[in-house]
Amino acid sequence: QCSDVNKLIWNIREIIADLSLFYHLQPGDLIYTGTPEGVGAVVAGDQITGRVEGVADVALTVGPAE
Q1: Cα end-to-end distance, the chain, whole Å
Q2: Taking the model in full, what pTM does it have?
């Protein structure tokens, strides 16, 4: 899966504004939107990476179900 936030149905400002109606968002909160294309199941062993330009990178490997 590889895509960009400009392909989401709602832009980032709209997502934050809508969620702010229902939740008290704080600095550091994460909003998971999923990917707008290339959707598939996440399974043990998958490596997931993400990046917020100018902020940070994140990387993780999905472990086995407990």
Answers
A1: 25
A2: 0.52
The 10 Å Cβ neighbour count of residue 48 is: 11
Beta strands in the chain (DSSP E): 47-52, 56-61
Query: What is the dihedral angle through the alpha carbons of 34, 35, 36, 40, rounded to the nearest 10 degrees?
Result: -110
Q: What is the pLDDT along the chain (66 residues), one digit of tens a residue?
A: 667 778 888 898 999 999 999 999 999 898 988 766 667 788 999 998 888 888 899 999 999 988
CA angle 42, 44, 47 (to 5 degrees): 70
The type of residue at 42 is: V
